[in-house]
Write a structure and sequence with these properties.
Number of helices of chain B: 18
Main location (chain A): membrane
Shape of chain A: globular
Largest sheet of chain B: 2 strands, antiparallel
Structural class of chain B: mainly alpha
Radius of gyration of chain B: 22 Å
Number of domains of chain A: 1
Number of domains of chain B: 1
Helix content of chain A: over 70%
Order of helices and strands of chain A: HHEEHHHHHHHHHH
Largest sheet of chain A: 2 strands, antiparallel
Keywords (chain A): Amino-acid transport, Cell inner membrane, Cell membrane, Membrane, Transmembrane, Transmembrane helix, Transport
Largest interface: A-B, 43 and 40 residues
Strand order of the largest sheet of chain A: 1-2
Family (chain A): Belongs to the binding-protein-dependent transport system permease family. LivHM subfamily.
Structural class of chain A: mainly alpha
Oligomer: heterodimer
GO molecular function, one term (chain A): L-isoleucine transmembrane transporter activity
InterPro entries (chain A): ABC_transp_permease (IPR001851), BCAA_transport_permease (IPR052157)
CATH topology of chain B: ABC transporter involved in vitamin B12 uptake, BtuC
Number of strands of chain B: 2
Distance between the termini of chain A: 43 Å
Strand content of chain A: under 5%
CATH class of chain A: Mainly Alpha
Strand order of the largest sheet of chain B: 1-2
Chain lengths: 319, 393
């Protein structure tokens, strides 16, 4: 594959990571804890879409190789993920009398409960949406780019959702309230913002985007009860790289981490081609920069960012 | 200690949750005893469960030394456990891709040294981080360790794992042949269903003695450490790190010491697991092991070693109980059932009893300050206050 091909793959994967990381970052800044159940919220979205799509079928026509029914399933997946998250907030997180570390530990329990319920219902095997997989787009093949129409649909939908979020945050009342609350919750409260309601909307938006990300992840790869949990750390890496609490940082971080993980085979080619000083260093790098370690590279980047720039690449000021 | 002299008084001295735990434990033991006597539970399998419980207790002790004492959110328990297991397995197994065939004691030492190095590698960068960042970073680094173990086939045999591990006592003077030389016993408790105690029984018995030794030594070392001035610094760091720093303590250094202590104990649990299970694979580094240990510690009560012991037993009950349920009553796959139970326990503990069931109380106080001839009735000594409102550290 050419560089362009890797970049195209990276773009598709990044779209999914961006959808996940925005929600995680929003909840991190407004509900003020690291939500370990976020990955499993994505799984909920994916499996809801699987069930809905199985029930409604194609509904006639198709856009970008995807039947109308799939888009309906996407919407239902987003809605159910949001409802489940709001329900969890109301039932579990809100009545808790613990600090943010306690909430973090609780969210691990919630993550296990989500995953266990899905696994009891659907088993632990891999499944796919009942959509025929497409051949790569012919006109792009000469450039070494192997993307299908489905991949184009994933990127386009992600762009629409992210643009919608941008408009919401910048130009609506709710968005202003959310930004105010992320900045300083106490100040937001004394200026008359109903912080509880804003928090609920945060859960709706964050979990909804996660649900969409989960559906696309299922379309991009396949579905399994562990899909979300496996991606969770990559999403954390993206959020931390972008700077916790900054939605635009999360977008940038998600984009970069998605690209880096998909570009790993390209990097390994580069390392092999480069004349690196001592032989042992070259061998070490060649062994470590391989596709098996794509995620590990993302995690190491995450730790390095935490150490040298805890506010992320887009972060401003100390918190 | 006063339990033997004055059982009634000692019982009255217990707090309500302590009595409750005692009651449940006694009932549970009677149930197990009944199952053993009627032959529903094989004695060898029972000893395997006891060994497993001891292993989880060790794991929880290790985590307790980090989270319970110092407040370090370490989500890389599975990495240290796995490194301990792999360290000893690679040294002792015949099929080991490197070295192999050494005495298990060499394996133990190597495993502990490797765990120490890993603790430094993970600890040096992450222990300066804020609590929630430490959680994420340590989980990420544990995942890196898992990926390395999975992919470096020349070192670890990859996804096939390591087989052919000898028992821990191989090469020891008497103990190495002890299971073979012991006669097979045949006990008839209920006529018609004899219980046969053969070689595997004696082997399991040795394993249980081993884990009891490990856990016992760890327990007393930790209790001593927790009460010592060193332990008091750790507790201060846990409740207010700035305060500890203002008192002139190098908190980073103390955190590192507690991190290393805990990691070594986790590696010890891994070493025992290797010789109990006789097979080690990359699946043993799955993050679920980390969360088993976490459930044990927060359920038992953060900072309490008794609690960690109790939590370890609960974890084995959940782990093996779901398997048992699956065989007997409900045909539900045990894996998600286990996950569900673990999740529910985490949420329930955080909701209803965030300090855990047996929060540390008198075990934090130097014994001579409390057991003043068995009459802790002087209110101005601060004893009562501690007893009533314990875990609000």
């Amino acid at each position: 594959m050419t560089v362009l091909g890797y970049l195209a793959n990276g773009l598709v994967f990044s779209s999914i990571i961006v959808l996940g990381s925005i929600g995680l970052s929003l909840v991190y800044s407004i509900a003020d804890f690291a939500n370990f159940a976020h990955g499993d919220t994505m799984t909920i979205g994916a499996y809801t879409a699987l069930v809905t799509f199985g029930a409604v079928g194609g509904l006639g026509g198709a856009v970008l190789g995807l039947p109308y029914g799939f888009f309906l399933a996407l919407v239902v997946g987003i809605a159910v993920a949001a409802i489940v998250a709001v329900g969890t907030e109301k039932l579990i997180y809100e009545p808790l009398d613990v600090d943010s570390i306690g909430l973090l530990i609780t969210s691990i329990g919630i993550a296990f409960i989500y995953r266990a319920v899905i696994q009891i219902r659907f088993g632990s095997d891999f499944t796919r949406f009942g959509i025929q997989s497409l051949r790569p787009i012919e006109t792009l093949l000469p450039y070494g780019v192997r993307v299908t129409l489905h991949d184009v649909a994933i990127v386009a939908s992600a762009v629409v959702l992210v643009a919608g979020l941008h408009v919401l945050l910048q130009y609506t009342d709710l968005g202003r309230k959310m930004r105010a609350m992320a900045d300083n919750p106490d100040l937001a409260r004394v200026s008359g913002i109903r912080t509880k309601r804003v928090k609920l909307w945060t859960w709706v938006i964050g979990a909804g985007l996660a649900g969409a990300g989960g559906v696309f992840l299922g379309l991009f790869n396949q579905l399994s009860p562990r899909m979300g949990f496996n991606l969770l750390l990559v999403i954390f890496a993206a959020v931390i790289l972008g700077g916790i609490g900054s939605v635009y940082g999360a977008m940038a971080g998600g984009f970069l981490i998605g690209m880096i993980t998909q570009l790993t085979p390209f990097f390994s080619n580069v390392v092999e081609a480069l004349p690196i000083g001592p032989g042992w260093l070259a061998t070490l790098l060649e062994n470590l920069i391989t596709i098996e370690y794509a995620n590990a590279i993302a995690f190491v980047i995450m730790v390095v960012v935490l150490l040298i720039r805890p506010n992320g690449i887009a972060g401003e000021g100390a918190t | 200690m006063s339990f033997l002299d004055d059982p009634k008084g000692a019982f009255a001295d217990l707090t309500r949750p302590e009595r409750w735990v005692l009651g449940v434990s006694v009932a549970f033991m009677l149930f197990l005893l009944g199952a053993l006597l009627t032959g529903a539970l094989g004695p060898t399998y029972f000893l395997f469960l006891v060994g497993l419980a001891g292993m989880y207790a060790l794991l929880s002790f290790g985590l307790n030394a980090q989270w319970g004492f110092t407040g370090l959110i370490n989500f890389s328990v599975a990495a240290f456990f796995g490194i301990g297991a792999y360290g000893s397995a690679l040294m002792t197994a015949e099929s080991s891709p490197i070295a192999g065939g050494f005495n298990p004691l060499v394996g133990l030492v190597v495993a502990l040294v490797v765990a120490l190095v890993l603790a430094l590698l993970i600890g040096i960068p992450t222990l300066r981080l804020r609590a929630d960042y430490l959680a994420i970073a340590s989980l990420g680094l544990a995942e890196v360790v898992r990926l390395v173990v999975l992919n470096e086939r020349w070192l670890t045999n990859g996804s096939a794992g390591v087989r052919g591990i000898p028992s821990f006592f191989q090469g020891w003077p008497v103990l190495s042949t002890f299971p073979e030389t012991m006669p097979g016993l045949r006990l008839v408790v209920i006529p018609g269903s004899p219980i046969i105690l053969g070689t595997s029984f004696w082997q399991s018995l040795l394993n249980v003695l081993l884990v009891l030794t490990f856990a016992g030594v760890t327990f007393f070392v930790l209790r001593r450490a927790h009460q010592s001035p060193w332990g008091r610094v750790l507790r201060t760091i846990r409740s207010d790190e700035d305060l500890a720093r203002a008192l002139g303590k190098n908190t980073y250094s103390f955190k590192m010491q507690s991190f290393i202590l805990g990691s070594l104990i986790m590696a010890l649990a891994g070493v025992f697991y290797t010789h109990l299970n006789l097979y080690v694979g990359p699946g043993d580094l799955d993050p679920i092991t980390t969360f088993y240990a976490w459930v044990a510690v927060i359920l038992g009560g953060s900072g309490s070693n008794r609690g960690a012991l109790f939590g370890g037993i609960v974890i084995v009950t959940i782990r093996e109980g779901t398997r048992f349920l699956n065989d007997v009553a409900l045909p539900i796959d045990p894996a998600p059932m286990r996950l569900l139970l673990i999740g529910v326990v985490i949420v329930a503990v955080m909701r209803y009893r965030p300090q855990g069931i047996l929060p540390p109380q008198r075990e934090l106080i130097w014994p001579s300050a409390v057991d003043d001839r068995g009459t802790p009735e002087t209110p101005d000594s601060g004893v009562r206050e501690q007893k009533g409102g314990g875990g609000d550290e």
